[in-house]
Each structure stands twice: as structure tokens, then as C-alpha cells.
């Protein structure tokens, strides 16, 4: 064994490596970045069950879930989503500045009452009126405009409305048919337990079952005794996770799904870098857990789970003040619990050079043709029955 001043060779090598790592980390820590754009795709918060989720044996099958109504945002959910806006304000206060500036904010939601309400709640926490924008000293709120598309035309956030995406989904369902047959016995059992047909390899009814049980649990309502054997962990979650896997299984599906949101965000960041007059500082997309999952899948950082109420993917554009180079940092806020962490995309560091970020994701970024939705595409809505 070779010794250097009391150090063995392996220990000397390990010590040297640690010094190299610490030096590199110190260099990273010394770099000074300024935020240039913040994009966030987030899920609505706690809600009452949706009509499509109801099943005959549910203890609350006849409930109208007063005062929220079916699918309605609950008070607990309002507080949670408002807190998401406050989180953004605290994290980016210096970048945002004290006042709301109309041309600096892009705010879009899906055309659902709960997602439109959640967008307003996030904006309320993000931009409380200050100074000359205070118009009512008893109301710490100001109106901020938002946009949305009707579901049948919302190809940015609801891919299921595009025949082309459904065609790709049907192909995957067919390709996975042998694997999905392994769930047949469980699906038949759920059909008997719920009084609702749970069979079918698109797994959508099990997905709906998971979400109604989640909604009722967050309302502190008792769920059916049999459900406790499979929820919140167990077979119902396993099948639901399989549903999400099928949701963006291929790169083609990712381009037609979360890739469209990624393209929109990249467009906003490109405009910011180019320095045009009409550039946004903040881009907000208020949607569903499917949107959060789709963006995570496009970024290559999704892991099997159901994105929780008020979960969010934040994509931050940074500029190195010394080199004038641009970088991206991806942050995932889990919602429940409301912690957050930076996640490196595959092939890059946590602070990723912007051009490298765009290049690494080129294969899941849609072309101009893929951004459009051909509603007249010659695909049958029930083609899966003919192909499989």
C-alpha cells in the first residue's frame, strides 16, 4: 500500500475527488442568475366528485355535494390554490415587482369552472393590489383577465379532443392488450362491487373511481368499506398509474399531449430572449392532473404517481449575469405535501443551458403541423374495436 504523508492511495484519491466536486459546486454557487421568465402548469385543487365518476353503490351516490355542487371547488381547495399563488409571490417577489402589469402576464385555463376559479385564486395570491393599484382597502384583490378555449377546441390542454391523438392512444391500447388482460379479473370484480361497468382496456372507469374516492376522502366523507382494500394504495392505484402510462406512452403521443404546452412555453421564452416588446414575464396554465403528468412525461421526469391537488410544474428561464447565457430550471411542487424540488431533465444538470434544454426535448416538441388538430381526420371513434 502506498502512503503519502499518512494517507493511503485510495484515501488520497477519494480526498482529491471530493475537493474537485466541492470546487465545481463552489463555482456553481458563485454563478449569479436572474430570473427572466416563469412558466407554471398546475392542477386545480380539492373538488367535489364529477358526475362521470359516480357509481351506484357509492354511499354518496345521490348527493349533490352542497354547497359546492358536482365537480365544484371546495373551500379547502380554494385555500390550497390561493397558497400556490402566495408561494409564487414569495419565491419570485423581486422578479415580479410590486405591481401587476397586464402585458407581462399570460393566464390560461381549461373551460371548467374549477380550473377558471383556481387560476383566479393563484393570480390573487400572486398579485395582491399594492400602492396605486389598491382600489378597495377592505378587499386585497384585483381583477386580472384570463383566457380559455371551449373544450372541443382546446387542443393545447385537452388532447383527447383530437382524433389524431385518440388514434395513437388506440394503437397503444391494442399493443398493450396482452398486458392489460392481466387486469380483467380485477376489473370484473370492481364491476360487481361498484355496480358500474369497469371492464374495458382503456381503464378510464378505474381512473374515475380513483378520483371520486380521492375527492370524497378530501371532503372527509366515508368511502365504501370494500374500497379500503384497494385504495389509496393497492390495485386501484396500480391500474390508475397504468392509465397515466398509456396517456403519453410514445414520443408521438407526448408531442400531441404535453408537448404542445412545452412548445407554448418555449415560444414565450424565445420571445423573452429575443427581447421583443410583447413578452411575458409569467405564463400560467391552470388545468388538471393530466396536464401536470403530461408535462412531466414530456420532460422525462415523470414517475408513477397521480399528481396531487394544486401540484405544479414550474419552468424557470434564468440568465447568467456574467456570461449573458440563458439557462432553465425545472421545479416540481407536489401540492400535497406542498414541498418542491428542482429536477434535472435526463442528459442535463439541474441548471440546464437553454439551447441544450430545447435540443434535448426536440423529439417531444410538436411541429407546426402537429400543433393543429385535424377534426376531419379519417379515424373512427371506435376503431380500437376493429383493430385489436
UniProtKB/TrEMBL annotation:
InterPro entries: His_Pase_clade-2, His_PPase_superfam, Histidine_acid_phosphatase. It catalyses: a phosphate monoester + H2O = an alcohol + phosphate. Its EC number is 3.1.3.2. GO terms for molecular function: acid phosphatase activity. Keywords: Disulfide bond, Glycoprotein, Hydrolase, Signal. The keyword Transmembrane helix does not apply. SUPFAM superfamilies: Phosphoglycerate mutase-like. Residues 1-26 form the signal peptide. CDD domains: HP_HAP_like. PANTHER family: ACID PHOSPHATASE-RELATED, PROSTATIC ACID PHOSPHATASE. Belongs to the histidine acid phosphatase family. This is acid phosphatase.
Amino acid at each position: 500500500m502506498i502512503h503519502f504523508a499518512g494517507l493511503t492511495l485510495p484515501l488520497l484519491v477519494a480526498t482529491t475527488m471530493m475537493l474537485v466536486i466541492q470546487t465545481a459546486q463552489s463555482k456553481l454557487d458563485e454563478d449569479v442568475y436572474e430570473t427572466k421568465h416563469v412558466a407554471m402548469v398546475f392542477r386545480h385543487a380539492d373538488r367535489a366528485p364529477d358526475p362521470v365518476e359516480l357509481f351506484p353503490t357509492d354511499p354518496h351516490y345521490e348527493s349533490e355535494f352542497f354547497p359546492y355542487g358536482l365537480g365544484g371547488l371546495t373551500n379547502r381547495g380554494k385555500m390550497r390554490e390561493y397558497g400556490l399563488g402566495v408561494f409564487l409571490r414569495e419565491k419570485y417577489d423581486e422578479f415580479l415587482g410590486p405591481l401587476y402589469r397586464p402585458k407581462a402576464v399570460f393566464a390560461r385555463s381549461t373551460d371548467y369552472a374549477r380550473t377558471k376559479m383556481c387560476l383566479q385564486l393563484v393570480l390573487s395570491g400572486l398579485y395582491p393590489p399594492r400602492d396605486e393599484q389598491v382600489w378597495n382597502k377592505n378587499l386585497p384583490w384585483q381583477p386580472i383577465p384570463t383566457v380559455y378555449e371551449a373544450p372541443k377546441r382546446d387542443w393545447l390542454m385537452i388532447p383527447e379532443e383530437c382524433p389524431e391523438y385518440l388514434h395513437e392512444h388506440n394503437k397503444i391500447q391494442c399493443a398493450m392488450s396482452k398486458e392489460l388482460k392481466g387486469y380483467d379479473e380485477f376489473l370484473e370484480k370492481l364491476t360487481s362491487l361498484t355496480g358500474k361497468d369497469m371492464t374495458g382496456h382503456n381503464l378510464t372507469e378505474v381512473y374515475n373511481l380513483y378520483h371520486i374516492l380521492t375527492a370524497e376522502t378530501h371532503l372527509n366523507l366515508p368511502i365504501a368499506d370494500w374500497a379500503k382494500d384497494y385504495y389509496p394504495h393497492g390495485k386501484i392505484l396500480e391500474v390508475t398509474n397504468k392509465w397515466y402510462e398509456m396517456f403519453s406512452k410514445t414520443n408521438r403521443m407526448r408531442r400531441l399531449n404535453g408537448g404542445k404546452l412545452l412548445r407554448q412555453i418555449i415560444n414565450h421564452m424565445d420571445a423573452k430572449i429575443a427581447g421583443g416588446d410583447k413578452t411575458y414575464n409569467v405564463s400560467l396554465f391552470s388545468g388538471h392532473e393530466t396536464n401536470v403528468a403530461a408535462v412531466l412525461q414530456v420532460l422525462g421526469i415523470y414517475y408513477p404517481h397521480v399528481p396531487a391537488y394544486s401540484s405544479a410544474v414550474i419552468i424557470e428561464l434564468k440568465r447568467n449575469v456574467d456570461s449573458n447565457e440563458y439557462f432553465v430550471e425545472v421545479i416540481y411542487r407536489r401540492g400535497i405535501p406542498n414541498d418542491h424540488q428542482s429536477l434535472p431533465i435526463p442528459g442535463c444538470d439541474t441548471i440546464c443551458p437553454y439551447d441544450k434544454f430545447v435540443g434535448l426535448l426536440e423529439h417531444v416538441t410538436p411541429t407546426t403541423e402537429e400543433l393543429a388538430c385535424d377534426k376531419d381526420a379519417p379515424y373512427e371513434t371506435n376503431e380500437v374495436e376493429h383493430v385489436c
